[in-house]
Every structure is written in C-alpha cells, then in structure tokens.
Automatic annotation (TrEMBL):
Main subcellular location of this protein, as a coarse class: membrane
Protein name: Cation-transporting P-type ATPase C-terminal domain-containing protein
Matching Gene3D superfamilies: Calcium-transporting ATPase, cytoplasmic domain N, HAD superfamily/HAD-like
Pfam families: Hydrolase (PF00702)
Length: 236
C-alpha cells in the first residue's frame, strides 16, 4: 500500500538526484497525491529504498534477516488504471434487477475501491450516503460476531481487506439466512470459497487450491460469465 510505504519514509529523492528530509508539508503533499489517485480509481504504487551494509549483519543471521521497513527514502509513485471489463456494469445491473446483491471485497484502499465500485455500478450516490455501506476490513474484523451480522446486510464495498475478512463476511451473511456465492482466485481465498454456498474460482488466474475449494470454475475469468451461471441456475 502506497500510504504505508510513504509512512515509512524519512526522506525523498528529488528529480535532480538530491535527497531531502521528509517534512510534514512534503508528507501531506504526497499523501494528497495518493488520495487523488485513489479517488480517480487508480491503484497507487510507491517505490522506496534504504541502504544497508550486509557486513553489519552477523553471518548466522543472514538467512532470517529482513530489510528494515523504516527510515526509507521515497523514489516516486505511479498510478495504474485497472478499468472494468466491457459488460461488467450491465451484468451488475442485471444482478440487482434479479435481487442478487453484488459486493466488492478487495485489498485496495477504501477510496480506490469506492471509485472502482462506482465505475462498475456496484455503488451509487445513495449507497455512499450510508457510512456502513463502505467499510474497511480492519473495522469489520474487530467487531463482535453479533455486530458483524448487524452490518453485513448493508456492506457493499469492503476495502483494505484480508482473505479472512471475506470469510467472516460470508459467515455473517449465511447466519442471516442469505444464499452466498463467492468468487476468488488466490490460495488464501480457499476458506471463503469453501464456506460459501457456491464457490466460483477463476480458471486462468486461479490457483489449484482455489479451484479445488470451489464448486464452479469460470474458464474465462470474466464476471459476466458468473452472472450467466447465476441466471442459468435460476432458469433451471
């Protein structure tokens, strides 16, 4: 996460090759840049480095030694656009019309997740008016089981979430009596895929563990194919 990298930087690298201390004004300027990129549905990546002398690390500790994550020097930041695939917005609207609520659970920061959800039609202006519609994974996981059940119905976007947060959301929704379908592609998604009433893994980007934990494999990794699966089962 770019904001976490920035928070670990004590200096920054200028375009002229000089290094300057990270003042509070510079930090706030860079933080605003990250926020601006996030609100434009850009995934921000920050690059930083630190200089370490391996000779200062005891030889017996080399195997377990890790690069310090503080006192870094910021090199720069970039924003990457990951646009919605064609047809996704229409597919989300079809789901909504059929009474199927689409929720986004992502590791992106909340502002990026919110902007992408707007683009895909998962969020609308009315949703944003409700604070519980958009939540951070850490906030959700630290709630009691009862509190999670109370807010689960309202959640549309969960940002900065871990695979375990996805599992907790699935469990809360199932306890509320919902039939839950989950998509995932990573090994860490396996518990949520297994817990869901219907687990859908990605055939191209999905790991073998994710595929083995799912009920259905989406061969083209396309959300519109997920919707086709749902409607095919409704017709059946």
């Amino acid at each position: 996460a770019a904001e976490l990298v920035l928070a670990s930087c004590k200096s920054w690298f200028s375009i002229d090759g000089s290094v300057h201390p990270m003042s509070s004004d510079k930090y706030n300027e860079l933080k605003r840049s990250i926020d601006d990129m996030a609100m434009s549905s850009l995934r921000c990546i920050a690059f930083a480095y630190c200089t370490c002398e391996l000779t200062m690390v005891p030889r017996e500790d080399l195997d377990k030694w890790q690069l310090p994550d503080d006192n870094l020097t910021l090199l720069g930041m970039v924003g990457i656009k990951d646009p919605c695939r064609p047809g996704v917005r229409d597919a989300v609207q079809l789901c909504s019309a059929a009474g199927v609520k689409v929720r986004m659970v992502t590791g992106d920061n909340v502002e990026t997740a919110k902007a992408i959800a707007f683009e895909c039609g998962i969020l609308n202006a009315k949703d944003v008016a409700s604070e519980t519609t958009i939540i951070e994974g850490k906030v959700f996981r630290e709630m009691s089981e009862t509190a999670r059940e109370e807010v689960a119905d309202k959640i549309t976007v969960m940002g900065r979430s871990s695979p375990n947060d996805k599992l907790l959301l699935v469990q809360a929704l199932k306890r509320k009596g919902h039939v839950v379908a989950v998509t995932g592609d990573g090994t860490n998604d396996a518990p949520a895929l297994h817990e869901a009433d219907i687990g859908l893994s990605m055939g191209i980007s999905g790991t073998e563990v994710a595929k083995e934990s799912s009920d259905i494999i989406i061969l083209d990794d396309d959300f519109t194919s997920v919707v086709k699966v749902i409607f095919s089962n409704i017709k059946a």
